[in-house]
Automatic annotation (TrEMBL), chain A:
GO MF annotations in UniProt: branched-chain amino acid transmembrane transporter activity
Claim: Cell membrane is one of the keywords in the record: yes
Keywords assigned by UniProt, alphabetized: Cell membrane, Membrane, Transmembrane, Transmembrane helix
Recorded GO CC terms: plasma membrane
CDD domains the UniProt entry points to: TM_PBP1_LivM_like
Recorded topology in the membrane: Multi-pass membrane protein
Name assigned to this protein: Branched-chain amino acid ABC transporter permease
Taxonomic superkingdom: Bacteria
Stretches that traverse the bilayer: 31-49, 56-75, 81-101, 108-126, 155-175, 205-230, 242-269, 281-302
Any Pfam family hit: BPD_transp_2
Compartments (UniProt record): Cell membrane
From TrEMBL, chain B:
Compartment(s): Cell membrane
GO cellular component: plasma membrane
Keywords, in A-Z order: Amino-acid transport, Cell membrane, Membrane, Transmembrane, Transmembrane helix, Transport
UniProt name for this protein: Branched-chain amino acid ABC transporter permease
Domain of life, per lineage: Bacteria
CDD domains linked: TM_PBP1_LivH_like
Lineage, opening ranks: Bacteria, Bacillati, Actinomycetota, Actinomycetes, Streptosporangiales
Family recorded in the similarity comment: Belongs to the binding-protein-dependent transport system permease family. LivHM subfamily.
Record bears the keyword Acetylation: no
Chief site of localization: membrane
UniProtKB/TrEMBL annotation, chain C:
InterPro entries cross-referenced by the UniProt entry: AAA+_ATPase, ABC_AA/LPS_Transport, ABC_transporter-like_ATP-bd, BCA_ABC_TP_C, P-loop_NTPase
Name of the protein: ABC transporter ATP-binding protein
Keywords annotated in UniProt: ATP-binding, Nucleotide-binding, Transport
GO CC term (a single one): plasma membrane
Chain ranges of the ABC transporter domain: 2-250
Alphabetical list of PROSITE patterns matching this protein: ABC_TRANSPORTER_2 (PS50893)
SUPFAM superfamilies linked to this entry: P-loop containing nucleoside triphosphate hydrolases
GO terms for MF: ATP binding; ATP hydrolysis activity
Length: 332, 293, 252
């Protein structure tokens, strides 16, 4: 894509986002905001699982850390909402780095183990430090005051989707860069990656911390959208749902998290009529069925179908295989 | 002094549970090199089955016997029906599939039995027992006896029986085992079945104390993982010892370290895992794994 | 010059290497031979930082290699291929080679995310280097194909190209001829000589193909049971009684 078309595309996407602010009702805007912030969390997790080949079962915990950071800063210190976002990101990044250092150097599932432990332990920790976290009851957080004539929902929607767009562009740059290629080599063959001069342990720790940071940012945005945090919203199942989101969207694919976020946001709306536990069952089945039958996810399938279609329309011109290094699926 | 002995006894009691589940994890890990994250939920499902059977009027012992048989069949079926299809996949895929199983079992149990805690009675009175000035409950004594008995049976199975030999052979070197005429697929299935049984025993023993609801195994699973990490994922005996050690640490910190109490017990398990991974990543009894290039 | 002295490694109680030594002059082609299980691949893995070393030293042009992590060894100018191919299966041939050129770039996480003009220039440059290399190693036709579907001999070439991409000074080849047909071995020999000539490379190879070893190398080091038992020209080591014994067993 030439520089001009990419600038045009970016402007067009931003324009659509802004137009939506004024044409879509508040309820749907809050759902779209949820899509945006979930996409941020999934883009973080996808960096770790899809590109670097490491599993985290505890990203719900980083989401919680971000959410509580914003909740506490806003209610205790009266800090402006937007200012708390970078702090939430940095704090989750730091916790990720501290946990990642012992976990990622070791055998494959050590990180899964440590993050699982974190996900199980965190709700109890949040309840324990009642003075800070409001304990079992959680914290009610005043929603941000919108600038100008916007409603609060319009404002939080804009913040969420614009940030999601920025993160999308950054992540897409990163995975096609030298470092993105290094991540894939670490996933594909650790020994060979090291022999090529890739500092395997450092790449893993930084990617883990980065993905934790992005998920923390998503959690902070969730507080702006819902105005409420409570320990039981951040249990183990949240972490597994996030995994289901990236598996459905497509591991190691830039568009995967977007599809996954739409799925995770709208699924409960349609299934909780059946049962409160239905989304969990669906997500569990999604993980199993996709990994067995469609490991490249929805976006992978779409790419494949699109390629076939183009080949049929223009059989002469050879369709170039996508050489964007990062967009290759996890091999299964 | 009495308080110390009592604390230690309680620790050993719950440690036996953790050790059992840790053993179940290690059995599967030995055979297939993956940690089964659905282990706790499988045990939860078994425990609900036992509860349902008792609720319908079966005597305790019959209900548990049927449950164990069903767990065996369920574990076998899960491996043969699902897990075998990812046997050749990368570990990441295998682990995520066990995670999918986790979600499905958890959701289905919630759908069928709901989230209100149920009480499951133990086989023995919940009365207490005094030996040499130390008070303990029959339940703790029962747990210790049952676990020791189960370990003995497993030990005999693996070391003395023909089946045990086949299972070990299939786990250590599937290709050679296949050449020697061992049905490796069946052996893996039995391995999963056995660990489902061990998990079921743990679930039935622990439910009378914790109450029974779909999420009740989360903390137990965490302790079991801590136990397996302490003992080393390559050592079945180590897993049990590790589980007991974790139980002791939990009991001791809860009693003697004021700010931890019972409320931060899960954090103790998290910290234990992180420290062991930092200091001795292969656990106390594990063999060092050398990556082959 | 590569100088290895008294390299010692143990796994559990077993000494995999004890007192392995080797020297290789700059710009020479040296072979490391020995019966199966002699410790040759372990020796490579220790030199390149994959296994922890328990004793001894290894220096390349005065730089100590023992104790460096794998990527540190690569930075010191060493590059290697693997006995059982270790390619990145989800990538194309060209991307495998670009991945091999990791050390030529500088862009880190932040720069990669922002994708500044400098990063783009750097990427174009790396790509050009990789494209030239695929040309040189004869991989032009398969450049954009996924590496996992290619024939074995071609995959070995990709690995060689990838190892050269970091512009190493010392190239370690672990059984480059294994699994190749004899015309392919002849081609390989020429290829190794060519790339060495053009780059002033030092080459160290583990090889069982004696024809290749004898015609390619001026110096041969022989290992058995984790120790070096002979060093010298191909003719010298062939005469060495210890070497004959290692390969054929002690005369009874």
């Amino acid at each position: 894509m030439s520089a001009l078309t990419s600038t045009l595309t970016r402007t067009a996407v931003l324009a659509v986002m802004i137009v939506c602010t004024f044409t879509v009702n508040d309820y749907d805007l809050s759902l779209l905001a949820q899509v945006g912030l979930t996409a941020i969390a999934l883009m973080g997790l996808n960096l770790l699982v899809g590109y670097c080949g490491q599993l985290s079962l505890g990203h719900g915990a980083f989401y919680a850390i971000g959410a509580y950071t914003t909740a506490i800063l806003v209610t205790r210190t009266g800090m402006p909402h937007l200012l708390t976002l970078p702090i939430a990101l940095v704090l989750s990044f730091a916790v990720g780095a501290v946990l990642g250092i012992p976990a990622v150097r070791l055998r494959g599932f050590s990180l899964a183990l440590v993050t699982l432990a974190l996900a199980i332990a965190l709700p109890q920790l949040l309840k324990h430090f009642e003075g800070l976290t409001g304990g079992q009851l959680g914290v009610n957080v005043p929603r941000p005051a919108p600038p100008g004539a916007l409603t609060t929902d319009q404002w939080t929607y804009l913040v969420a989707v614009v940030l999601a767009f920025a993160v999308f562009l950054g992540v897409r740059n990163l995975v096609t860069s030298r470092i993105g290629l290094a991540m894939v080599t670490v996933r594909d063959n650790e020994a060979a990656a090291g022999a090529m001069g890739v500092p395997v342990a450092r790449v893993r720790v930084v990617v883990f911390a980065l993905s934790a940071g992005l998920t923390g940012l998503a959690g902070a945005l969730a507080t702006l959208v819902t105005g409420y945090v409570s320990p039981d919203n951040f249990n183990m199942l949240l972490s597994v749902n996030l995994v289901a989101g990236i598996v459905l969207g497509g591991l190691g694919r830039v568009w995967g998290p977007i599809v996954g976020a739409v799925f995770l946001t709208y699924l409960p709306l349609y299934t909780t009529d059946i049962s409160q536990t239905a989304p969990g069952i669906v997500n569990g089945l999604v993980i199993i069925v996709f990994l067995l039958l469609l490991p490249e996810g929805v976006t992978g399938l779409a790419t494949r179908l699109g390629r076939r279609l183009r080949a049929r329309i223009a059989p002469r011109s050879t369709v170039r295989t996508e050489s964007g290094t990062g967009s290759e699926p996890v091999r299964t | 002094m009495q308080q110390l002995v009592q604390t230690l006894l309680d620790g050993v009691g719950s440690g036996m549970i953790y050790g059992s589940l840790a053993l179940a994890l290690v059995l599967i890990h030995q055979a297939t090199r993956i940690p089964n994250f659905a282990q706790g939920e499988m045990a939860m499902l078994s425990t609900f089955v036992a509860w349902e059977l008792i609720d319908r009027g079966l005597p305790w012992i019959a209900a548990v016997a049927i449950t164990l048989a069903l767990s065996m069949a369920g574990g076998y079926g899960l491996q043969r029906g699902l897990i075998r299809w990812v046997e050749r996949s990368p570990h990441l895929t295998q682990v995520m599939v066990t995670l999918g199983v986790f979600m499905v079992i958890n959701g289905v149990a919630g759908l069928v039995w709901g989230y209100l805690p149920k009480t499951l009675d133990g086989p023995v009175s919940s009365g207490s027992l005094r030996i040499a000035g130390v008070t303990t409950s029959w339940q703790v004594v029962g747990m210790v006896l049952v676990t020791v008995g189960m370990l003995l049976l497993l030990y005999l199975l693996f070391s003395r029986s023909r089946l045990g030999l086949q299972l070990r052979a299939a786990a250590q070197n599937p290709t050679s085992a296949r050449l020697a005429g061992i049905n490796v697929g069946r052996a893996y299935g039995i391995g999963w079945g056995l660990s489902a049984v061990v998990g079921a025993v743990a679930g039935v023993m622990v439910a009378p104390q914790t109450g029974l609801e779909p999420n009740f195994m989360f903390p137990i699973l965490l302790y079991a993982f801590a136990g397996a990490t302490v003992g080393g994922f390559s050592s079945p005996g180590g897993a049990v010892v590790g589980g007991v050690l974790v139980g002791l640490v939990e009991a001791l910190t809860a009693t003697y370290v004021g700010f931890i109490g019972t409320e931060l017990s899960l954090t103790v398990a998290l910290v234990t895992i992180v420290i062991v991974l930092l200091v001795r990543p292969d656990g106390l009894f594990g063999k060092k794994e050398v990556a082959r290039v | 010059m590569l100088e290895v002295r008294d390299l010692t490694v143990q796994f559990g109680g077993v000494k995999a290497l004890s007192g392995a030594r080797l020297t290789a002059e700059r710009e020479s082609v040296t072979a490391l031979i020995g019966p199966n299980g002699a410790g040759k691949t372990t020796f490579f893995n220790c030199l390149t930082g994959l296994y922890p070393v328990h004793g001894g030293s290894a220096t390349w042009c005065g730089k100590q290699l023992v104790g460096l992590p794998a990527h540190g060894v690569a930075r010191a100018g060493l590059s290697r291929t693997f006995q059982n191919l270790a390619l990145f299966p989800s990538l194309t041939v060209l991307d495998n080679v670009i991945a091999g050129a990791h050390l030529l770039g500088r862009a880190g996480f932040a720069m990669g995310t922002l994708r500044t003009p400098r990063v783009r220039a750097e990427e174009r440059e790396t790509r050009r280097v990789a494209e030239e290399l695929t040309e040189e190693i004869g991989l032009r036709e398969v450049r954009d194909e996924p590496v996992s579907g290619l024939p074995y001999g071609t995959q070995k070439r990709v690995e060689l190209a990838r190892a050269l991409a970091s512009r190493p000074e010392l190239l370690l080849l672990d059984e480059p001829a294994a699994g190749l047909s004899s015309p392919e071995v002849a081609e390989l020999k020429q290829l190794i000589l060519d790339v060495r000539e053009r780059r002033g490379l030092t080459v160290l190879l583990v090889e069982h193909h004696m024809g290749l070893v004898m015609s390619l190398c001026r110096r041969v080091t022989v290992m058995n049971f984790g120790r070096t038992i002979a060093e010298g020209t191909p003719a010298e080591v062939q005469e060495d009684p210890a070497v004959v014994e290692a390969y054929l067993g002690a005369p009874t």
